[in-house]
């Protein structure tokens, strides 16, 4: 059985495996999960082409799954033969027993992998997780540092029948994913970022870098939408009305920048911002020059103290040494 992602919408009869219970509409990943997965990868598979696999713990409520915690699993697979892999069931059972003693509210909600893509063994791992949870989710957590978009993708398994009389195939279907955190987690992440912050990088530079990363991610999304629309126009894939409606909504929300009033307002706003930056630069330069003049006055041209003061201090030291020497001679003569 091969696991694949559905890129184009086809006329299929789809039935989610979660039909026996509430369907999964949204997955929320908490920061502790990302930290645990990154630590797991760097301990086990750093510098290799291997991936790591683990179990996700959390809570489920009305189709929304909060992934709060995770733990690693001993996992090995043969790259040449995808059907061969090792999954430690005894370790999984023992970890489940220990976690129930610590926190009974957190239950198994699925499993994770560092991917970065879906592999054939993922459906078999999904079947193993179904022994512990009715509707397991599958999360691919991309730990590569050069990724600018959200590093998490969530999937659920669906059954698809393309034509009547054909066999049912199982595939992974995307689930809406977002990052979330409770107040205590937000405070912990803020302290962690404060500890790893680079003091050589100013706050302005970090803000600009964040804006650039956001624009790069937006560019990737727009290119994906462009490729999809071109494929639809060329007849390579069928049009999905839901996707087209979303794209039309995005286009409708864009402001009309060709109106004279808006152009004038943008120019005025830009000039005001540049004026504030210019004044701040002037004030900073004047303060720096003022400090430089004060230093010259205090320490002299060569960076030392005034010559007169230095000579006076040296003469005072010599006189004190002479007095001490004369006092010592008198004491010795007595």
TrEMBL record:
Q: Where is the composition biased (Basic and acidic residues)?
A: 314-334
Q: Which gene encodes it?
A: RPN8
Ranges of Acidic residues composition bias in the record: 303-313
Q: PROSITE patterns, alphabetically?
A: MPN (PS50249)
Pfam families noted in UniProt: JAB, MitMem_reg
Q: Which domain of life is it from?
A: Eukaryota
- Every copy of the MPN domain together lies at 27-161
Please give the name of this protein. Regulatory proteasome non-atpase subunit 8
Name the protein family.
Answer: Belongs to the peptidase M67A family.
What are the record keywords, sorted? Answer: Proteasome
What is the phylogenetic placement of the source species in the record?
Eukaryota, Sar, Stramenopiles, Ochrophyta, Bacillariophyta
Annotated region described as Disordered, given as residue ranges: 302-334
Write down the InterPro entries for this protein, in alphabetical order: EIF3F/CSN6-like_C, JAMM/MPN+_dom, MPN, MPN_RPN7_8
The record's section on Gene3D superfamilies has: Cytidine Deaminase, domain 2 (3.40.140.10)
A GO molecular-function annotation: metallopeptidase activity
Q: Name one GO cellular component term.
A: proteasome regulatory particle
GO terms of biological process kind:
proteasome-mediated ubiquitin-dependent protein catabolic process
* UniProt cross-references to SMART domains, sorted A to Z: JAB_MPN
